[in-house]
């Protein structure tokens, strides 16, 4: 129990550290970094080959994914966004045809409505964009502490791509044996292939 408490405390400290870095970014610097990540992501073979994009609607502290959401729809890809279904960490992805279908949900995040949007029933040909405060070079992440993505990734079978600012790449992060790491990591400066067996990508 003591070791578990230590890890939880360490994760809280890491979240606070990288949140402060995000909050301290100058708007012009953040905009330039977001645009560079968008260009690298959409140029990646993992995106070009994907039929379905699983992506989150970003908050101001995160990498801006709204241009990516619009681009996926423009490119004719199926677009699915997550909805937090309960307070126990259950999350699923639902398909949208327009960003006008999103509405504020749990934690004030923009989500599809499960009553109106169809649930994504297959991960075949998909790529999932992972949110996080920080990533490390092995693809492990420090999330926002609610556990929704951790639970979802235990059953997700497609490619996983982290998007992150270079200032939020940690040398290493604590992780457990069941934690799912990203297959690729996209930053403003490079795209890194983390899993050698991952399809369609390379370090740039």
Write a compact overview of the structure shown.
This protein has helices at 2-23, 27-43, 45-49, 66-74, 148-153; strands spanning 52-54, 78-84, 91-96, 103-104, 110-111, 126-130, 134-135, 141-142, 159-163, 184-186, 191-193.
Question: Could you explain how this protein is built, in words?
Answer:
29% of the residues lie in helices and 20% in strands. The strands form 3 sheets. Strands 3-2-1-6-9-10-11 form a 7-stranded mixed β-sheet. Strands 4-5 form a two-stranded antiparallel sheet. Strands 7-8 form a two-stranded antiparallel ribbon. The longest helix is centred in the first third of the chain and has 22 residues. The C terminus is likely disordered.
Measure the end-to-end span.
Answer: 42 Å
Mean pLDDT: 90
User: Whole-number radius of gyration?
Assistant: 16 Å
Spans where pLDDT lies below 50 across 5 or more residues: 199-204
Find the structural class using helix and strand composition: alpha/beta
The main pleated sheet reads as: 7 strands, mixed
Q: Give the overall shape.
A: globular
Extended strand count: 11
Q: How are strands sequenced across the largest beta sheet?
A: 3-2-1-6-9-10-11
Helix residue percentage: 25-40%
Strand fraction band?
15-25%
Q: Number of helical runs?
A: 5
The sequence of SSEs as H and E is HHHEHEEEEEEEHEEE
Considering the chains and any ligands shown, give keywords for the structure:
204 residues, alpha/beta, disordered C terminus, two-stranded antiparallel sheet, 5 helices, single chain
